[in-house]
Amino acid sequence: MRIGRLTDGADCRMEFRSEGSRLRAWASGTSSFASTVACWQRIVAEVRARAPETLLLVDELKGRGLTELEWESLVQATKGMGLETVRIAHVKPQGLETMEYCEIYSREVGLDARVFDNEAAAELWLRARQDQGDPTM
């Protein structure tokens, strides 16, 4: 019996751009657990390579949203991978679906992350701490 890799069948296309201390990422393709895992593997690699203070992810994956258990599994898998030092805004322009689980589980593992349905609100949230002179930023 062949056991496939977690990302077999993934349809995730990523683009990245550094903007000062921010890493901006765009994800497109077909939404599935495999695609989402593949996207976050690429994001972790870019965060490690570029060491940004903030990450703005515009997630335009189309299709079914992840289940609560899939979000929990994904977030647990990113624990200790270097995302703990980055403030993360995850934007889902097509609607939040089950994204609240992403935010809840992210906070449980010590990530500073929020989900948004529009990029402008995400930008404001990412800037808020910097504007307040937070010494951790």
Your description of this structure?
This protein has helices spanning 33-50, 68-78, 99-108, 119-131, and strands at residues 11-19, 22-30, 54-62, 87-91, 112-116. The protein is α/β, with parallel strands linked by helices. The chain has one domain (11-131): STAS domain (Transcription Regulator spoIIAA, 2-Layer Sandwich), CATH 3.30.750.24. A five-stranded mixed sheet has the order 1-2-3-4-5, with helices on both faces. Helix 2 (68-78) packs parallel to helix 3 (99-108). It is globular, with a radius of gyration of 14 Å. It starts with 10 loop residues before the first strand and ends in a 6-residue tail after the last helix. The mean pLDDT is 86.
Key features of this structure:
5-stranded mixed beta sheet; 4 helices; 137 residues; Transcription Regulator spoIIAA; alpha/beta; 38% helix; single chain
Secondary structure blueprint with pairings:
Elements: E1 11-19, E2 22-30, H1 33-50, E3 54-62, H2 68-78, E4 87-91, H3 99-108, E5 112-116, H4 119-131
Helix pairs in contact: 2-3
Offer a concise description of the structure.
The chain is of the alpha/beta class and 137 residues long.
**How many beta-strand runs?**
5
Structurally, how many domains make up the residues?
1
pLDDT averaged residue by residue? 86
Strand order within the widest beta sheet: 1-2-3-4-5
CATH topology term: Transcription Regulator spoIIAA
Cα distance spanning the termini:
49 Å
Q: What percentage of residues falls in helices of 4 or more residues?
A: 25-40%
Annotation field: number of helices = 4
- Gyration radius from CA atoms, angstroms: 14 Å
> Which sheet architecture does the biggest sheet show?
5 strands, mixed
CATH architectural category: 2-Layer Sandwich
The best one-word shape is globular
Structural class, from secondary structure content? alpha/beta
Name the beta content range: 25-35%
CATH superfamily: STAS domain
Q: Unreliable segments (pLDDT under 50, ≥5 consecutive)?
A: none
